[in-house]
Predict the structure.
Amino acid sequence: MSDTTKVPLQTVERLSRYRRVLADLQDTGIESVFSHRLADLVGVTPAQLRRDLSIFGSFGNVARGYDVATLHRTIGRLLGTDQVQTLALIGMGNLGRTLLMYRGFEERGFHIGPVFDRDREKVGKVFAGRRCYALEELETVLPDFSCRMAILACGPGGLDALTARLANLGVAALLNFVPQRISAPPGVFVEDVDLSAKLEKLSFLSRR
């Protein structure tokens, strides 16, 4: 793929779904899969599947379809999850502790490393094998972990200033669980996760 090729975000999201299904196929011992079968398992059309993959090159063949292990490995490399990435976690409240215990991150190539909180009662303590640092220590601690991504599970106060500090330390992507809009610096991508909004959407749909 050329460095100048622009990949739609929807394609990136589907790549993640392709990889998850391919992992399931590997676990059941399936070695190859045709495009129509893979597309059906993911919930897209075969044409959409082929268009997504064609952005990155040529995969599979007419006789055997896609090699499951090879395509799974290739998509992992494209997503950058073929090697474990260390994330920073900001906020050790109930949500932060739940995220810290979630095993799905490790299974998909992500490891939560340093955790930070403003609460002095939590600073210095160890949660699920990770020491909690004071937020004031961000500039001295975070560089040792080479984090390019961080999870925000903290309070809304000073969120833009915190984002700017993280950006200055090389963090280029944020998974934001705080129900507040962030004015991110240039070059920083923010993915908002508003659980309450999702429940409100489901509530509306369930009543129709």
In short: Residues 64 and 156 are 52 Å apart (CA to CA).
